[in-house]
Amino acid sequence: MTTFIKGATILAMGGQHSAEPFTGDVLVEGDRITAIGAAVQAPTDATVIDGAGKLVMPGLMNAHLHSNEALFKGRYDNMPLEVWMLYSYPILAAKRLSERLVYLRSMLVAIESLKTGVTCLSDDLYESPKAEMELLGAAFQAYDDIGIRATVSAHVVDKNFLDTIPFTRETVPQHLQDEVNKLSPPTVDDYVGFVKQAHDRYHGRSGRLRFMLAPSAPQRCTPELMLAANDLAKEWGIPFHTHVVETKVQGVTGPALYGKSLMRYMNDLGLLNPWTTIAHSIWVSEDDIALMGAAGVSVVHNTISNQKLGAGIAPVRRLLEAGVNVALGSDGICSNDTPRMFDVMKAAGLAHKINNPDWSRWLTASKVLHACTLGGARSALIEKEIGSLEVGKKADLLILDMQTVNFAPLNDIRNHLVYCENGSSIETVMVNGEVVVQDGRLTKVNEKALLAELRALMPEFQAYTRGVEAANQPFEPAFADIIRRCYGTDLGFTRWASDAG
């Protein structure tokens, strides 16, 4: 299939046209961009799209989300992470979901993502009580059917949960500890066998879908498992995707458990590398930032989720200056509670102005857009394929109507995208050269029927969820005590109170 977009305003975000929007044409042949610029010659058999009054730009990248939270969307509020996780990632009473419910859950995320301009996502998929090949396959099938580009993990924890948070053995009642101690986490051999099979089965599917390795966090996984995952990530050329120091509790965890920060612990194990992608990195020191920059890691800044959970604001400007690649993510679909990346871009643009009188250090709209396109692509190790509109790259792009109120009056297009647009101006979404959204309608699946099927299953799921919540609520007082104790702990470095970015 050949598509010719004629006379549009183009924001390429890379290549020779990266600096400024310009007026020109885009030629897509098959799944790739074959020409871009002024006065491009189109083949006679091309489908022509009139670009007058339209903006063509790369699709947005959601560099970190957890689709497994989608059925809790809109359910929880006013909880710090460690309390919130008791319910969204329950310790006790979780049961296997059906493959169909996992499919519909994944589809819910993909529907909202595509319709609001997200053409690629990194789904750090965690299944309770454990990962299963059929459930992972259900998520891949949903993403395949709808036409989105995705990198999907089998998120893993192989330590007793009570040994991943400081002070639990002092605060959690013994009878609850006894229940947790009965649980058996996967072995390293179990995990390696699983991910090898998953990689063989799903990586490269349909030219859009990839697999990644996702040890949950350094305090939640044994060194043996993390090192095995790192070796495979390097061998396969895929991301090692993890979480580090999202909250003050996690900032305390490193010194309490290992006598050093979690980032220094990662570094000393050899786990900070160019293929390492770290979600959050809020409670980091200057030493941590220097280590991350020297290693060339990626950090995914989850602005909205971090605010909703009261976790803090990552020092993005300092990370960028150290040489860290910064991407943007929605994070979980019940800690945000949406995968809409236009929302995240606006929040990122605003958050780093708080308590920072040096406006020369505020993030520009261009830097925010870079983080949500090329920065995100780099975090997934596919920046040579997507993230900008360049000859030879995959045709993942958006066409927006600039006659909408979001672009009126038209001033700086990049500012309009970050601060004025919400996705409602999108007319066309293309992934891999295929139109997957046209005039607000998904072209490959029946959205109305899928959502109706999901709604019909929700009463039973919500009744089950209430039981899970009741089983885990007794942990909450102890976890609340731990949070208060950690917030009274001096980590020995100054937070970015005068420099949020």
Automatic annotation (TrEMBL):
<feature type="domain" description="Amidohydrolase-related">
    <location>
        <begin position="55"/>
        <end position="436"/>
    </location>
</feature>
<dbReference type="GO" id="GO:0016810">
    <property type="term" value="F:hydrolase activity, acting on carbon-nitrogen (but not peptide) bonds"/>
</dbReference>
<keyword id="KW-0378">Hydrolase</keyword>
<dbReference type="InterPro" id="IPR011059">
    <property type="entry name" value="Metal-dep_hydrolase_composite"/>
</dbReference>
<comment type="similarity">
    <text>Belongs to the metallo-dependent hydrolases superfamily. ATZ/TRZ family.</text>
</comment>
<dbReference type="InterPro" id="IPR050287">
    <property type="entry name" value="MTA/SAH_deaminase"/>
</dbReference>
<protein>
    <submittedName>
        <fullName>5-methylthioadenosine/S-adenosylhomocysteine deaminase</fullName>
    </submittedName>
</protein>
<dbReference type="InterPro" id="IPR006680">
    <property type="entry name" value="Amidohydro-rel"/>
</dbReference>
<dbReference type="Pfam" id="PF01979">
    <property type="entry name" value="Amidohydro_1"/>
</dbReference>
<dbReference type="InterPro" id="IPR032466">
    <property type="entry name" value="Metal_Hydrolase"/>
</dbReference>
